Amino acid sequence: MKIFAVGLNYDSHNREMKRVFEASEPVIFMKPDTALLRNGNPFFL
Question: Taking the model in full, what pTM does it have?
């Protein structure tokens, strides 16, 4: 399983966190399933 996520996509939250980073394109990152799953348990959405 691959998990793709989009970061810094809420402008109001970025202002709240006092971030000065402004991306012209979405920041996309991946998380391996091992970062979320333990002992091979299934993951349901």
Answer: 0.42
